[in-house]
Design goal:
Residues 54-151 form the Methyltransferase type domain. Keywords: Methyltransferase, Transferase. 42% of the residues lie in helices and 22% in strands. It has 285 residues and is an alpha/beta fold. Strand 1, helix 3 (64-69) and strand 2 (73-78) form a beta-alpha-beta unit. It is globular and about 55 Å long.
Length: 285
């Protein structure tokens, strides 16, 4: 693995294909974990019976489903059809009807929705990944009524998202020449890691009463294999890191991570890791 080179921005088709490929693993590993801290994220807004809520880049429903269970009338959109299919299946399995939650394939940078439609618009590690972050945020604001709230949750710095930071450390140790994430500009999953920049982006989208709070969530891993499978399903960047490993490198990375997990847990095979989230909110004028 050599130093990264700059490539043209991916096309929408390429982005859709990347998330389509990840959707099964994302639904298996990421959504169940995210559902565990959805209430922490949604505590920043009022969501209850009658709330009209839009979840942008919803994945397979980590915020949309809990909001619907609170009584909100939810619309969830995602660019990847398989993500939408998985969300629909989760809603069906949970006894939610299409009246309570609708899931649509849609580009979050160009929402095919009317102005001033929703009371609350949310996104968890979704809009923050858009090549056009400003477009995504302004679209969220556009479809939210005056006085309504936009909420965006995004990862903090990689070293504060331990399942990512630990893997970077293991890759550095196991793979000669491995170059981790660039710092300037940061990769998409971490460009809202700086709370000041996060707040500025929300204000630039036309929001007022902007606030960014930090939350730390726990993520339990039974083994290095589970940790790596989670990373592989979380984002195209992590999937690419692991796809490039030789068999011996992969074994060494697992060995290093298993040792780190045992050290954290005091000798057991699994451990609880922590992840920092920045949760930004703003009100539509």
């Amino acid at each position: 693995m050599t130093a990264p080179t700059r490539h043209p921005a991916p096309t929408q088709a390429q982005i859709r294909a990347a998330w389509e490929a990840l959707a099964p693993a994302f639904d298996r590993r990421i959504t169940p974990r995210s559902l565990l801290f959805a209430d922490e994220i949604l505590s920043g807004v009022r969501v209850g019976p009658g709330t009209r809520l839009l979840d942008v880049a919803a994945g397979s429903g980590a915020l949309a489903l809990p909001a619907a269970r609170r009584g909100a009338q939810v619309v969830a959109v995602d660019l990847a059809p398989t993500m939408v299919d998985r969300l629909v299946q989760r809603a069906h399995d949970g006894g939610l009807t299409e009246t309570e939650i609708r899931a649509l394939v849609m580009d979050g940078e160009r929402l095919e929705l009317d102005d001033d439609t929703f009371d609350v618009c949310v996104s968890l590690n979704g809009v923050s990944l858009f090549p056009g972050l400003h477009s995504g945020l302004t679209e969220m604001a556009r479809v939210t009524r005056s006085g309504g709230t936009v909420l965006v949750a995004a990862f903090g710095l990689p070293q504060h998202v331990e399942f990512i930071g630990w893997t970077i450390g293991a890759l550095k140790a196991a793979v000669p020449g491995f170059v981790p994430l660039p710092a300037d500009p940061p990769p998409l999953p971490f460009r809202l890691a700086d709370p000041d920049r996060f707040a500025a982006e929300l204000r630039d989208a036309g929001l007022r009463a902007v606030a960014v709070r930090k939350a730390t969530v726990d993520m339990s891993f039974a083994s290095a294999a589970e940790l790596l499978d989670t990373l592989r399903g979380s984002n195209p960047i992590g999937a690419a890191w692991l796809a490039d490993l030789t068999e011996s490198q992969a074994a060494e990375v697992r060995q290093i991570l298993d040792g780190m997990l045992r050290e954290r847990s005091g000798g057991g095979p699994g451990a609880v890791l922590h992840a920092r989230l920045n949760i930004g909110t703003g009100v539509v004028p």
